[in-house]
Amino acid sequence: MQRPWDAKRAILHADLDCFFASVEILDNPRLKGLPVIVGGTGPRGVVAAASYEARVWGVRSAMAMAKARNLCPQGVFLDGTYSHYYDVSQQFHTVLRSFTDEIEIIGLDEAFMDVSGCQRLFGPPQVIASEIRRLVKEELGLSVCVGVGTTKQIAKLASRRAKPTISGGAVKAPKGVVVVWPGEEGEFLDPISVKELWGVGPKTYQRLQSIGVERIGDLRGVPNPTLAKILGKASSHLRLLAGGNDSDLVVSESRRKSVGHEQTYPADLSHLSQIDRELVRLAGSVANRMRKNKVLGRTITLKIRFGDFRTITRSVTLTSATDSEGEILVHLRKLFPEGAADGGIRLLGVALSNLKDGAATQLTFDDDYRRERDELSRSVAKIKERFGVDAIAPASLICGGEAGVKRNLN
Fold first, then answer.
1. pLDDT of residue 124
2. pTM score
3. Which of 115, 127, 266, 297 could form a disulfide with 40 if both were Cys (CB 3.0 to 4.6 A apart)?
4. 398 and 390 in contact (C-beta within 8 Å)?
5. Which CATH code for domain 185-242?
6. Three-class HEC string of 104-136
7. Residue 342 and residue 301: Cα distance in Å, rounded?
8. What is d(CA 110, CA 144) in angstroms, rounded to the nearest whole number?
């Protein structure tokens, strides 16, 4: 493991194993070894996470809960406590940030890290990966698998191969860390199914199959004109991915072109009061992150995914940039289509783009109002920073004497 890393870039992908299920087992050790399934337990619920013992029976995340019950009737089915998962996730991210600030959070349970510039402090990337795994186990009691490579795609594929596997109806222990050494990307990629490359969906896969491509190694051997004929402009990028040569950056908070958050719900939202409450939560979450990163945004985007998985987005661009949750909420309510709740809503997302430095604001005719509003926002932010995100919230989020605040999940 002390082998030197002979490359300019060193990317890690850290992924917690069966996160929601693992947290439930950690909290209740009697569940250890049982098929634990977390998600919406209602008639239209979806599996959010399944332990490896449940995966032996064919249960997978994003599967309809009804199907999971049929496959694994002896499973332990839990609704889950998402605020608790968030708290554990924050501890996980804290461990990662003890090595570098160049972190791209993908969700509660996974992140990319660029450790190219911190090897003098912590050693080569494979040592950092092993240390992350040790610290997460020691401080959180959870298992994390880490992939190491020269690109994000390589690191992601490597972390998958570091995870536990299922063989003969039994769960085999994980490798924990898988390292793809510089110069050995081709050897690593060649036997992997081409379906695992980013951008290869069902239609692209069918086209590749039509010319005999099943593995990444097969793709690497296809002449450029042939690949371009069936894939068009996308062939160039796919060629780079297949060669392990993509240059996608780890996009940390400071590099992001937008700030947003989206939430998938265990059960579809169908009442306007529920939906409005979620819009209030999401507006507050995004506004908090805007202020934390000291940026303002001009374009507000609302994303809606319906119960049938149909997805729409609606946007509005303001004359002046903002980080005010009140202003964001006003526009979200206007963007929400009339009658959209009728079919049930599975996901809501809010994002602000067209970002600018929060210190540079343009004076407007309503500048007195804007100044008062911004002072109020700053005061609220200081209260939350000192006393916690649940210390103060809009009245619509107060339930049972407590603030139901939408936390920043990623």
1. 94
2. 0.70
3. 266
4. no
5. 1.10.150.20
6. EECCCCEEEEECCCCHHHHCCHHHHHHHHHHHH
7. 21
8. 9
256-403 CATH, one of 1.25.40.10, 3.30.1490.100, 1.10.760.10, 3.90.1640.10: 3.30.1490.100
Model confidence pLDDT, tens digit, residues 255-287: 667 888 888 887 788 899 999 999 999 999 899
CA angle, 271 as apex, 265 and 275 as ends, to 5°?
55
Distance CA 160, CA 177 (A): 10
What are the DSSP calls for 215-241, one per residue?
Answer: BHHHHHTS-HHHHHHHHTTHHHHHHHH
Q: Which CATH number applies to 7-178?
A: 3.30.70.270
Of 380, 376, 406, 407, nearest to 391 by C-alpha is: 380
210 phi, psi to nearest 5 deg: -65, -20
Q: Quick count: other Cβ atoms within 10 Å of Cβ 35? A: 23
Per-chain mean pLDDT for the chain: 86
- pLDDT the model gives residue 268: 82
> Tokens 């009658």 map to which residue?
339
Q: What is the pLDDT of residues 148-190, one digit of tens each?
A: 999 999 999 999 999 999 988 889 999 999 999 999 999 999 9
Give the integer Cα–Cα distance in Å for 114 and 254.
Answer: 14
Question: CA separation (Å) from 379 to 279, 366, 376, 384?
Answer: 22, 20, 5, 9
Catalytic residues: 110
